[in-house]
Amino acid sequence: MKKRHYIIPIFVPHQGCPHDCVFCNQREITGFQEDMTPKKAARIIEEYLSTMNKENSKIEIAFYGGSFTGLEIKEQTQLLEVAYKYCQEGIVDNLRLSTRPDYIDREILNNLAKYNVQIIELGVQSLADKVLQASCRGHTPEDVFKASRLIKKFGFELGIQLMPGLPKSTQESMFYSVQQAIGLTPDLVRIYPTLVIGGTKLAESYSEGEFTPLTLQEAVEICKEELKLFRSRGIPVVRIGLQPSSGVNKEAVIAGPFHPAFRQLVESNLVLDRIKAYLGAKVDEPQLTFRVNSRFNSVLRGQKNNNLKALQEEYGIKIEVEVDNDLDYREILIAERKQII
Fold it and tell me: Which fold, 4-260?
């Protein structure tokens, strides 16, 4: 039986972060207004563990928000020690964290290695220098390359976070960033289309008409193409779009392509493209039956059955969907021929 996967999130909002990036207000994004302390971290861990079925489960503790490795080593260690205790007791499998590319060095990595940190995610956001400058990131693409190499050298898993739609972004710069990120051979990727958050410099620019966020459809199209590129290299994209369930205070979002099921929009759009490419310009049969795993059913159909409606309208045929749990996720049987989407 497949293991359940739990992540216990501990948000460190703006602690350790030396810059005010134009898009960021961690306290608004997460809804956490106070600094994290070891005592609070322990309480959060205990609260999450009390709700979990620990049998046949993989449990990770994750330090998100801010820049964890920008904290003083003493503060990092105090938080790590609290979490590591659960690893020593066999309750938690490992730790993971997110941080800035310019706050990675040998001393920091040596310290993290002592506490069973397995995954380090870098808030890369873009690998186009003009975009990093316009976003007041305070680091360069070279900082990303150096940090990524070092993380890999020390044996950690590398995560990359990208933000399409930042100031000065173009389609060219966004896909350039993806290609550069692929070259870093990350173990996982997150794609977060840029949102306008209250209390940020980006919110000021937006209110003054100096910044226009991506529309929802633009963001879906861009993320779909980025997803295809990463998948073509076998790199898992573990998250697309910020969601309320990932520690996001949706009330803080002023503008931008926010949708509670953003990933499903992207995946459904990709499925529609793939099916059209497979069917070609014309379908001779009056009816087609698609068979899919039950977990993929909603993705195939699209929100409000929009994919099925689009196909029926374009080809003038009737479409039925049947569930077949012998199929893998993302497999579709069309007229008895299996397609991997």
Answer: TIM Barrel (3.20.20)
